[in-house]
Every structure is written in C-alpha cells, then in structure tokens.
C-alpha cells in the first residue's frame, strides 16, 4: 500500500508536465469580460483565438462574460483550473483600474492571473461636438480654463479613463471640465453627437464612422505617432500634453498554469502580432496599436503591468477618485 501511495504521489507531481507536452489536447475556452459584437477587446480576442485554433490544432472558443465592470468574467477566469484550457483576454481597466477604484473585488490580479501576452494599446480620439468652437486640444484647454466647469465631458461612469483624463488636465493644465457620467462608452458618444455634452474620448476605430460623417470633430490622438486613419489629427504629445497611462489589452491564464504552456501561448501569439495583415484587420481597425511590448515574453509583460500600475496610481490620485 505504501508503494502504491508513493507511486500515486509521483504521478501527481508529473501530471502537469505530461499535460503540457500534449497541450492542447482538447478545446480551449477564452473568456472575454467585455461586450460581444466586435470592439477593441472582442475583435482582437476573436482574431487571436482563430489563429491559435489553426496553429495549435485545437479549437479556441471565445466566451463573452460581460457585466459588472468586468468582475464576472475576471472572477470566472480566476476560479478556473490552471491547466491552460481556460484563458482570458481583457484590458487594463479590469486588471489594474478596478483594483485602484474598488474597495472589494472577487479577484486579485497579481495573485490570480498569469500574464501571457500583451496585445496592444487601445488608442483613443479626443472628440468634440461640431458646435464646440475649439479646433485643437490647446484651444479646448484654453476654453476650459476661461470658463471652468462649463465645458461638459461625457464619461463611462466615474472610474474610467475619461475621469483620469479630466483629472490630469485639471492638475497639469489648470483646465476644469464638467464631468457627466454615462452607463456605457457608447452612450457617452451618443450624448456628444446629440450635443448633450461637449467632449468625449473614444476608441479610434469605433469613432471613425462618426468622424467621417462630420458628427464629431477629432482634436487629438492618444497614440505615440499619428494614426494612419487620421493623419491630420495630432497626437497628445504634439499638442503639448504628456500621457502617463495607456489602456492596453492582453491575454491571461489562471495563476499556476504550467510555465511551458504560458511560454508556448506567448510564442505563438507574438508571431501573430508581428503579422501586419493580422494587426491591420483585427487590431488597428479597432484603434488597437501593437508595440514593442507586443513582442516580449510573458515575464516581461508581467513586469510591464507592475510599472504601468504606478502610472495608473498617479492618474487616479490626480483625478481624486476614491475607492467605492
């Protein structure tokens, strides 16, 4: 009996390595804690899942679990078995912002998730209703300085990137905007189109049709360089404003997923993120820009998240956002 127990213990110790060598041996679920129907997280996730299906010989199935600011999907990923058969694709909002703005969460990013690969940054346009007299970011800031709290800005709730930008402008530029929170980004955009609010920041890919139709005017772009889709729109940096934080998306696995599985997923994904046709179709079309971080290892992605959290902490403090 003792010999059987020892053999059972040894088998358990080597179970994960054996599984790793044959990975994947069955379909893989990819949880996306964001809305379905395309968008800057959903479409890149689906493109990546399709590629991994072909590259790794098993189906990677996207499962959207939207709701509660990403809590539902993130909790499901955190509670999944760490065997590589449940992954997640999500954003800095879920991984970092939620922890800085919420008193209680059903997950802890550092404890519960293993970073796999950085996909890209969701670049946004700062947009105004055409009735707003400002035709540049500098003119908009001057307007907000001259008439504090009269230029309205539609945001997703009170703890998203919109409030961070408002806080940053107040602290670094002395410009005070009047924040009007909406229940969703698209509602804030619709409010700006209707003229209910003056300003909104929205993913470049999603705003493209509204800009082309003349329903919104772009003043600045958050990317490091100008967008190919909006070559006449200057970056924030060109407008004299430095952004310390970025909304990025990445792939994660439950903590304690075997390292060789994480490394293989990272290697396959990095190959894809270097493919110009893939990034144009599934990332840049949604305003997601890959960068140097899209080509780094899983360990380096984890280090990036730690450094990025510091930038978010500073932005949250500047915006005066308190945990709730």
Overview of this protein structure:
It is a single chain. With 324 residues, the chain is of the alpha/beta class. It has two domains: 2-123 and 246-319, D-Maltodextrin-Binding Protein, domain 2 (3-Layer(aba) Sandwich), CATH 3.40.190; 124-221, D-Maltodextrin-Binding Protein, domain 2. The chain is 44% helix and 19% strand. It has 13 helices and eleven strands. A six-stranded mixed beta sheet has the order 2-1-3-10-4-11, with helices on both faces. It has a three-stranded antiparallel beta sheet with strand order 8-5-9. Helix 3 links the parallel strand 1 and strand 2 (60-64). Helix 3 (42-56) packs across helix 11 (259-273), helix 5 (92-101) crosses helix 13 and helix 8 (161-173) packs across helix 13 (298-319). The chain is globular, with a radius of gyration of 21 Å. 44% of the residues are buried.
Classify the helix fraction into a percent range.
40-55%
What's the name of the CATH homologous superfamily of the largest domain? Bordetella uptake gene, domain 1
CATH topology of the largest domain: D-Maltodextrin-Binding Protein, domain 2
The tally of strands reads 11
User: How many helical stretches?
Assistant: 13
Provide the succession of SSEs: HHEHEHEHHEEHEHEHEHEEHHEH
For this structure, what is the CATH class of the largest domain?
Alpha Beta
The major sheet is characterized as: 6 strands, mixed
Which second-level CATH architecture of the largest domain applies? Answer: 3-Layer(aba) Sandwich
Using only CA atoms, what is the Rg?
Answer: 21 Å
Q: Overall pLDDT, averaged?
A: 91
Compute the separation of the termini in Å: 55 Å
Q: Strand order, biggest sheet?
A: 2-1-3-10-4-11
Structural class by SSE content: alpha/beta
Low-confidence stretches: 4-16
How much strand? 15-25%
**Shape field:** globular
């Amino acid at each position: 009996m003792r010999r059987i127990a020892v053999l059972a213990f040894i088998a358990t110790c080597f179970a994960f390595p054996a599984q790793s060598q044959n990975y994947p041996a069955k379909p893989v679920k990819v949880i996306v804690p964001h809305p379905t129907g395309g968008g800057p997280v959903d479409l890149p996730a689906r493109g990546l899942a399709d590629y991994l299906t072909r590259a790794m010989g098993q189906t990677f199935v996207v499962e959207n679990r939207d709701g509660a600011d990403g809590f539902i999907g993130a909790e499901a990923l955190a509670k999944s078995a760490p065997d590589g058969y449940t992954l997640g694709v999500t954003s800095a909002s879920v991984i970092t912002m939620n922890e800085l703005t919420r008193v209680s969460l059903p997950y802890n990013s550092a404890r519960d998730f293993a970073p796999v690969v950085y996909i890209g940054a969701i670049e946004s346009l700062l947009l105004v209703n055409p009735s707003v007299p400002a035709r540049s970011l500098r003119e908009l800031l001057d307007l907000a300085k001259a008439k504090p709290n009269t230029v309205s800005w539609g945001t997703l709730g009170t703890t998203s990137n919109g409030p961070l930008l408002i806080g940053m402008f107040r602290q670094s530029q002395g410009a005070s905007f009047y924040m009007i929170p909406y229940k969703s980004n698209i509602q804030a955009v619709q409010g700006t189109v209707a003229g209910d609010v003056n300003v909104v920041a929205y993913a470049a890919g999603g705003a493209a049709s509204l800009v082309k139709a003349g329903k919104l005017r772009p003043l600045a772009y958050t990317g490091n360089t100008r967008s190919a889709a909006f070559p006449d729109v200057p970056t924030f940096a060109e407008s004299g404003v430095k952004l310390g934080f970025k909304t990025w998306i990445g792939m994660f696995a439950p903590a304690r997923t075997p390292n060789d599985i994480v490394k293989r997923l990272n290697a396959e994904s990095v190959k894809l993120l270097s493919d110009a046709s893939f990034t144009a179709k599934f990332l840049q079309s949604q305003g997601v820009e890959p960068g140097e971080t899209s080509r780094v290892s899983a360990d380096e992605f984890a280090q990036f998240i730690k450094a990025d959290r510091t930038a978010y902490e500073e932005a949250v403090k500047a915006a005066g956002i308190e945990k709730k």
